[in-house]
Amino acid sequence: MKRTLPKALFDTLTYMKKKKYYVTMKHIKHKKDYIHAYNFLLSYRGSIDTFTAYRREIERLLQWTWLIEKKPLPKITKELFEKYLQFCKKPLKSWIGLYRTPKFINIKGQRLPNSKWRPFVVTIPKKKFTSIKKLNASQYKLSRQSLKEIFAINQSFYNYLLEQRYVTINPIAQIRQKTKYFPRKIQKMVVRKLSDLQWSFVIETAEMMAQGSDEYERLLFIMNMLYSLYLRISELTVTYRSEPQMKDFYKYDGGWWFNTIGKGNKERSIPVSDELLKALKRYRKTLDLPALPSPQEETPLLPKQKGKGAITSSKTIRNMVQICFNRAIERMDEEGFNEEAEALKSATVHWLRHTGISNDVKFRPREHVRDDAGHSSSAITDKYIDIDLRERYLSAKNKKIKVN
């Protein structure tokens, strides 16, 4: 039986917040389902990350209930939701995309669903990505974390529908043994940070690239910021939350600080080390700016290399950092550090944040590191104390069993 391919239902938050957004969805059969879902998603407009995660899961659920089960949300029982879980583990191949694509695109002045979009997407570990010649739908795999999000988000959605008196039961709440859906997790010795050797090669490579190049001076400054201030990549680019500017560096009580708005719309101020302040002065010199910013300076923190304005895409920063990683890998291979070079192939931009935190927590008070990192509790920061498994191994390597 030929099944209808899913069409994207919910656009970006910018478009969804516009009045009468859903009138473009005239082809939808279960309009009440759609409007309730639309209003539920908009209730999370205060956090783009939360909104995006909720949009993904609600979109998948609606596509399945309408196109596969051909039922509205109030008709979904516990048994049907368990059937949906199995579908998420093994979706129809026609529902699986090989690359992430925009849900909607502009066509002749209209905002229309992108025909290339699919509810599920194949994700490949970064280290393996370059070795895979061709992606295919059979490579799709639902992760443990994704399964947790399916439970959590849909349970929250059905609680909302109960409050609206649109449904009479929450099918997810009726599943008593949710743990049966989760494979037993085996702890793996994965350290998502750079070793001291890797970091020294990476930062030295960035310094070498910056010699005589304004473009790579910007890269060097980015590397220093990510490592020294434990920044997330979203805290360096223009987002709905903020537009990073030079005035975010400010002087208070004799010291320099950096102000940012991070995950969960939480604002925090981070002390700036002498070395980072030196890096800031070097970077500003390449921009023909005074050594230090003024309290009113609205110069973009990271201006575009071409054109006006600030960097708005995290992809731009990811690409720049990856170039640095690649060159560092080449240098490490040339100098015989082949295992470390191979391990560096798995690194992402976010590892620089982890590296900065785990290196600092060794000698700074954990409460200070906690607040600088924006952790909600010291328990999160404590994880970084034991994160360096290499050091644990080396300290145990030569332990003696027989005592002379």
Number of strands: 7
Mean pLDDT: 86
> Which architecture name of the largest domain does CATH use?
Orthogonal Bundle
The named CATH superfamily of the largest domain: Intergrase catalytic core
Percent of residues in helices comes to: 40-55%
Strand order of the largest sheet: 5-6-7
What is the CATH topology classification name of the largest domain?
hpI Integrase, Chain A
Radius of gyration: 24 Å
Helices and strands, in N-to-C order?
A: HHHHEEEEHHHHEEEHHHHHHH
**N→C terminal distance:** 76 Å
Number of domains: 2
CATH class of the largest domain: Mainly Alpha
Question: Largest sheet at a glance?
Answer: 3 strands, antiparallel
The poorly predicted ranges are none
> What proportion of the residues form beta strands (DSSP E)?
5-15%
Query: How many individual helices?
Result: 15
